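Model: Ready when you are.
Researcher: Fold this.
Model:
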Amino acid sequence: HHFPLFTWEFLMTCMIFHFPYILKSPPVITAQPESVTTFSADDITLTCEATGNPPPTFRWVKDGVEFDPSKDPELSVSRDSGTFSLTAKDGPIHQYQGRYNCYASNVLGTAVSNEARIVTENTPTLQKEKKVSKKVEEGESVVLPCNPPNSTVAPVIHWMDKKLRHIQQNERVIQGRDGNLYFSHVTEADSRDDYTCNTQFPSARIIVLKEPIKLTVVPSNSVVRNRRPQMMRPTGPSSSYLVLSGQNLDLECIAQGLPSPKIQWIRKDGVLSESRTSKDSYDRVLRFKNISVSDSGEYQCTATNLQGIITHTYSVTVEAAPFWTKEPKSQLYSPGETVKLECKADGIPSPEVTWSINGNLLTDIDPDPRRSVKHGVLTLKNVELSDTAVYQCKAVNKHSSILINAYVYVIELPPQILTEDGVMYSVAEGQMIELACETFGSPRPNVTWEGETWGALVANPRMSQLLDGSLQISNASLNDSGQYTCTVSNSRITITAELDVLNKTVIVKPPLALRIQRGKPATLTCEYQVDSRQDAPQVQWRKNLQKLTESSDSDKYMIDESTLIIPDVKEEDEGTYTCEVITTLDIAEASGSITVVDRPDPPTQIQMTEPKDRSVTLSWTPGDDHNSPVLEYLIEFEETEYERKEWEELSRVSGNSQRTTLSLKPFLSYRFRVIAINDIGKSDPSMYTDVISTPAAPPDSNPEGVRSDSIDPGTLLITWKEMDRRSFNGPGFEYKVMWRKVLGSGPSWHIKSIKSPPLIITDVGNFSAFEIKVQAVNEMGEGPEPKSTIGYSGEDCEFLNVNPDAPLNVGVDLISSTAIKVVWAPIKRETVRGRLQGYKISLMYYGPESRREHVREGKPSNISFVMTDSNEEMKVLGDLLPYSHYALSVSVINNKGEGPQSDPLTFHTPEGVPGPPSSLLLDSPSETEMILHWTPPSQPNGILKGYILRYQQVDKEDNPMQVEKNIDHGVSHVSLKLDPHSRYRFYLRGYTSLGEGLPIIREGATTLDGVPPSNISLSTGETSVNLTWVSKERQRNVGFFIHYLKKDGKGTWKHSERVNSSQSFYTLRGLQSGSEYRLKIDFKNKTLWEDEIQTAGAKFMEVRKGFVTESWFIGLISALVLLLLVLLILCFIKRSKGGKYSVKEKEEGQIDSEARPMNNEGFGEYSDNEEKRTASQPSLCEDSKLCNDDALDDYANSNSVQTEVIMDESLASQSSGVRDVPDPGTQESSPLNPATAISHHGLPNSAALLD
């Protein structure tokens, strides 16, 4: 049992916190030195840092020899680590080149670093060069050399001109990996004298400018000849490459030739991986990034032009530097345990693995019987405290070496659980979760887990305990939720963990595979369900695994939560779209796709081949079908010599065809075009072909529909269906018409040629038979021999040449109650002046047997007609009504009309079975009773004897049929006792002496006692509410009231008008807006339904009712107002009559009060004279405030209606004159005097004031 691996910092923290007396720890290298290639102008630093307690000391080994950097004055050494560095200088640095290892040591062991190499390089310098000039003939190939300085560091090379502009590269001009510039062939435009190779060493921060090269291209004296390809780099037919796994490899293929060759790459021993390789430099380079062993094999480059091809084969061998497949772990052990350090490495070739202890090879250390090495596993049995050390495992092959440290720390420590108690864990259903129980101690503590309801968990296959003590639960289920306990064995040390398993995130409606036409919008939806205990998820859309985002400066994608919208689909939008619903606990994803479809492109390269007199082969090349396969091709033609030029369909072929043979007609000029059709629609038409003309030929057919349409007597009219002009087959087309009498005229034909039908021949006799035929002819010859047909000349107007009274021997045989057979003697055909068309039977219906008076009155209620052929002598008539009176007669007809009818023959049909009753109604007065009402059959078809009723339950299988027989024919209803829980089917038939008739069928069930509805839907308005419900089946209609109460605590219950349960809808009106109401329905002293609503709109502000509206208060106020009026009147009377007046004042008093000036400042104010006059008058209320002017003003102003007096000029002029007026003592100008107040809107001011 050994301790799990922790970072040393964590381990030391735990040890110091729990065991402060333990301070020592083995050295662990935390920063490794790295290999470097350096120039004299560079700084050099080799890093080596390590942790440990006590702090480790550092030493270096260079090329297997001890190296002390502190003794070199050029080097600076870090105090706290083994790191040393060299500052750039001008002097030589080659003495520092070599292989270095760092050793970090303390009392518990020694750790060894990886090997680091320092490679020193001289600073690249420009060597003396001769100026290069090349002169080549146009069309030849040429190589401009670069020759960069030698260095282990690959330079960056650019070809430029003297203005430092890059030389343009293409398939003809390309730069090789060696830096040279290759021309597959040159043109005159390539002539210049400043081709300069610029070599850059970024690590040395140096650019070396080479001498410019002059290239002169001499024009060829003759036509430049094409040349087949030849390899320029690499040369020869094959080359080999050795590369290490993980490195990059470029295979080059530069070829010369005219025109410039095209390059193709293949893998000869397999399939060339598109994902692991890429092409560069115009396909001249095949690039492998991070090459692997599987890429070993043979590759081939093929260079092709019009003159030929050349190939080059590349053998690629991939080997591998050593790499670890199993690494030893640093661990704690207790004395007596067995240590096993596993160390396995692989590589090509296979590496050799060696072990060291504290930096010393195991082979250089004295053997120990407790220690052994087998297959790379170091085993140390029965360890002791002195076995504490750092062990090194090293793997070496020809390419490089790797080294790893692992310490063995033998120590005794008491057990502890480091994980916090009571940790809460959440996991989504189906995911994996680990409940931590990290322990500390030596020997390593054993722990056990128990569940709240599970007990020991070792038996559960989904739960496993890991080496570090954690409990791993895979494929978590909802039942896993609960509390778990981790306990250290043989101790009371425990912790608990709480696990909450949430429902997994599910995409319930994934995006679909859409086929969208270009330019149309596409919408992908991704509906999901997330556990309510989780936060809102993030929805991430991807196209071909690349993230999509909604950009503010682009309307390419519109993302609205779980919906992705592409408003304008284009070709580049094709691909797989994935919706990821990401929560903190899990991810759900689903994919759809968009395939851009469109109408196909028109076919191209329409060609006509194999032309013949009557056919031609048409071929074409299909256009792009835009992801919707072509279903068929439509071939259209146009007649070029026809005045009305239009394209017409000629043929259709399947979508996988690219040629077809077209049938042509003679004497026509054609041109063709092709249209492709797919699911989206038709393509645009292709380009049309050249014109092809077919030679003339005799007609292939004759006209159809040759007949005689003769109407006039003694005239033969021959007509036919005109032939289509495309069937003329040549010039000079006509119809050759031939006719002859069938009898007596011999074999000779009468012939006449005309351009179009009809042909009329006169004086041929009445209704004579002719043999007629029509043949198509043109200048090239006649059509095939036509078939003849029989036609007749016109018929005479007179019809029969027989005595109308002659009997036709008409007879009737009764077959059944609904069918008869009519027979008659045939007429002699020579008596018919025309073609005998047949016979006409007139059938007259007079009604049932009980209404014989209709027969005597000769008034049939219905007449029907039946036509027969000319050679028939009898006819069966069906669908007659039984037990009825009929009559019939027979007449003869030809093309001109109908002859006289035979004498009517009377007969009656026998009795039959009745038709179904006319109606059947079901009525249920109670839950167990059903009354059936019916009306007699409309067609009794005899004497109705009575009714038979059968019924059975239809909602139960194998129920017997119940029968009610012998219901008298005069009965029209019957009552039945039925099961209220069943549905019944009723069959009611009438019957006569011949048997039962057809039934009338009805289904029904008894009606149950009704109740008001209880499942009511509400829809509120401002002052009303709509109530809707579904009436229950089979329930009897019942009336009820809807009660409502306003929820302000003041009103009483009110109710609606009477409502019927069968209404299914009712509007309750008269409510107040913005108010809450209680609604209920009571039935039989029980509340069946109750609900609360709030009406819409603003709340109705109701005036609060107070004592102001009480009747006693209104009466009191009215009495006080009346008393006040009386006091005011008495006060004014006293003022006007009291005191003495002068004669002048008395005369002035007789002036019309209307002429007195009025003060505009207020209502009820007086002039100064009037004030003086009234001041001397004693008053009834001299001391009262009611009689002073201010009081009157206050009274007037206190009224709710203020009246403004306006006098216009006309009114002023009228009031200025003197009139006879009553005594001034009784006519005082006062607002309370209706005789003197100026009216306001047609009313006295006093009335307006007291309104």
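Researcher: Now this one.
Model:
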Amino acid sequence: MKFRGGGNCGSCGLRELPANPQPSQIPCVCACKPTAIPNSLCFCLQGLGANGIRLTMESALTARDRVGVQDFVLLENFTSEAAFIENLRKRFKENLIYTYIGSVLVSVNPYKELEIYTKQNMERYRGVSFYEVSPHLYAIADNSYRSLRTERKDQCILISGESGAGKTEATKKILQYYAVTCPASQQVETVKDRLLQSNPVLEAFGNAKTLRNDNSSRFGKYMDVQFDYRGAPVGGHILNYLLEKSRVVHQNHGERNFHIFYQLLEGGEEDLLRRLGLEKNPQQYHYLVKGHCARVSSINDKNEWKIMRRALSVIGFNDSEVEDLLSIVASVLHLGNVQFAADEQGNAQVTTENQIKYLARLLAVDGSVLRDALIHKKIIAKGEELVSPLNLEQAAYARDALAKAVYGRTFSWLVNKVNKSLAYKASEPSEEKFPGWRSTTVLGLLDIYGFEVFQHNSFEQFCINYCNEKLQQLFIELTLKSEQEEYESEGIAWEPVQYFNNKIICDLVEEKFKGIISILDEECLRPGDATDTTFLEKLEETVKNHPHFLTHKLADQKTRKSLGREEFRLSHYAGDVTYSVAGFLDKNNDLLFRNLKETMCNSENPIINQCFDRTELTDKKRPETAATQFKNSLSKLMEILMSKEPSYIRCMKPNDAKQADRFDEVLIRHQVKYLGLMENLRVRRAGFAYRRKYEVFLQRYKSLCPETWPTWDGRPYDGVAVLVKHLGYKPEEYKMGRTKIFIRFPKTLFATEDALEVRKQSLGEALTLAVDFFVKTTKMQATWRGFYRRKKFLTMKHSAITIQSWWRGTLGRRKAAKRKWAVETIRRFIKGFIYRNHPRCPENEYFLDYIRFSFLMNLKRNLPKNVLDKSWPTPPPSLCEASQLLRRLCMQNMVWTYCKRISPEWKQQLEQKVIASEIFKGKKDNYPQSVPRLFINTRLGEWGLQSLTGGRKGGLMNSFLAGNSFLTPHLFGFNTGREEINTKVLQALENEALKYAVPVVKYDRKGYKARARQLLLTQNSAIVVEESKIKQRIDYSNLTGISVSSLSDNLFVLHVHCEDNKQKLRLSTACLPPLVLSLSPVPYSRVVGTKAMILKNGLSFQGDVVLQSDHVIETLTKAAILANKINNVNINQGSIKFTVGQGKEGIIDFISGSELLIAKAKNGHLTVVAPRLNSR
């Protein structure tokens, strides 16, 4: 039994007993749990905690003048930034570094050890309601963990703040909390160890000393921890973002390179350093001396080295992998010492051959090849390799680029290696058999760089601040959403909150084509001399009117003094930040010369070989830029966070000097601003400052009202209503929700607390009497309960023995009967198997019936799904004939069912598809592309839509779409915005049924000029139309054949009988002017005299017709069916001859090429170049 000693009762607020009570003091009398005591007092039995003290949030309200409020929403002047900072200062002076804003935790780095992270404190927060204990990191961790367990929803904890604010330490403390408080097993302990030991490894390779923090994370980290159904951690996964690779080759004054270099030199064994060619003095290495800060008093590199080596072993690195990894680290140091000198031509030459030898051995590459790759640049242009020498500046760039690429890719490999060791592995067979039984939930931890504003801000700060803009946007959206959902669930009217929506800034950075990242990528990729200055000019030209963007050129006279000519300023949600464009293009490109990639791809070091994939050499696609990669990674991170229930920890540092007990108000104000804390508080306080469930509120304050004290027997809602009425709450001060009471003003709550303090004093004397009475009553009750329970136990024991004896006999008889039945069944089965080939008899009838039953049940489960499914279970010998009959009946039934569902329109469609297959399958390249597209009656305008939707020309669409509602006319290749058939043409064809219409391109027989036409197919003829004119009518009886090539072009030729001129002249009269039509019939010779007029109307007198259609397969299939010329469609391989005029022939030559091209060749032929889509 546990007891909460010291402080006040978490329910009613009465004073509890001392932290270490005597046995006689264990009962705690308070106002929350009444018993039948004569003086109507009540008792509250609490648990005795590990440290004996558990202060609740409500009990600390009485100390608010000294230590401030534990939740900023209780600040009376919540809009005042000064009041906010003063509350932080009060709590910081009392070593209270944690404060809430609703459910958000604000943490101030104390820069000293506090005794608040012990196992006793972990147990104190374990399984306790969020507001029942004082603010702490563990409260956030436990609340997320309990939500994950009870609601089975993925959770995430977002930890943000600037460098040195304690984000990494907060992540460690949360992982330690889960390692101590979660259920354990041998496998779980292994996962816990690996989760904890991943931190020293990633810190060694990804952290460094900066001006603001001695252990600053130079990369963003998101870690998922997987929990099984018991709530035990069983796996994990880490995502890393934007490692600061530039730190490998350059550090600012007072800063260091990544920890691993110094740990290796300081802690590495002599034998290891000798194998790696290293000395212990960091001053010997060019990459380690630029910051002039090789040693730091607060960092013990030797101890950190030992911790890191142990961590590698725990994670699962073997000796060979450790050796390969350290070889790469050493190679980076040697790369920094590679020096160059210029020859007579000004070309760079390597002067440090000793370093090349070390690099060749450590990276397992050819030394001469590496030397040449460092001083030459290889370019592949039009399939040819061009090698050009580098000057000194270019060679230094190539060396540094290689160092950054090797270290950056090795870090990514290291993260993947850690992920493999943390991957969840099913440990029990039932987990694989029943995956739902062992389903896991995920809790994510995001430790990512905070908003950064330095004296000099470059590409890295731009990306980091862009990330913080996205996180702030997500934070405000989710905070508003959770507030609104709580109000709606409680039936409280939601009042819209005005807040700064920083989407405008996010769009400025990430918008396609017009955002800063898009402009930066465009400048990096464009040919020509692109520089950082041209990038700035392009920015000024594109986003000059944006209210949050400013440059020296766009600023007014006053503002220009604070802006350089190579700088631009963004107005972030946290304030203005000025960025220098110097280095933007180089850092964004992050390019590595091809010959250096080739050298690394040939490495025999297993890690380098995995980091440099050979596919990079053959992939002609340009790799994504650093900014685009970061934007895409950030977008995926936002999706991950949106899919989880978030909790927030906002970390702050009290001063830049890393001193304990020093509170820099200016620095704190700056962090409050860029963390958006006032904005968050304003959103949280937009409605009601305090809300509690009715049960909790009534339990705490019921002693203030005679009607609710000492006990309330009705609904909690009614009890709270009586209580607030007695306390004199005004209607505007509170609202009653469905399960909670909402109090608008902190002063209302504080007045209630003060009244409770007065009430506690008046109950003090009654408390002492109640304790004595309770002790005596408890002893009497214990004696009586002991006697009564012993007597009852003996009676129950005798009854249990009697029942057990009878039940064991019953179970034995049942078991014997079951065994007897099993033996008889097995005997019959074996005897039936022996006589299985005999005629049916009593000995084998059971076996044969079972075999038949098994076959029929198997057949029932495995019947063919459709007519194309030829599978059929193998029958036993006695059922072969029956199996064949059943198979035939099944097939007949499926065929009958399928045929019954086919509509007449769909049958016609299938028939056309079959004819198209017979004509073109395996012969025409673009035939496969036509297979999935339905054939329709027209490809022209409104008439075609009517034909598809059941208008005057048919209803294929309606009949087919009746069972396929997801299809639209556009899936038929139909566009309702196309040209329509002219009404004059429809009037001329009023007696003829129009079967098909399609837009075509007609090529003149003389000159091959392309002209837009329409091809109309009726029952008896094919008609070529130009707008309102009928240009040519071809009777099917005079159509001798159709020619088309085997390539993917869309040309075809209609071969017309050469004596079809009279037919054409009769056609021409349909288009002659009324004056000509009024003449009486004349001989053919006189009609020839009107040739000029006929030609003026666009008619042709003789020759075959050369057409092009985008739907050539559909068009030719329709034409072949209507003309009954299915066997007259000729598919030619090389060329097609056609009649131009009387005695004249034209030729179309077809050639395979990369793209479609139709032109007249010098030899007078029409040349068609078409790509070959399918190899036959």
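Researcher: Key takeaway?
Model: The first helix runs from residue 64 to 67.
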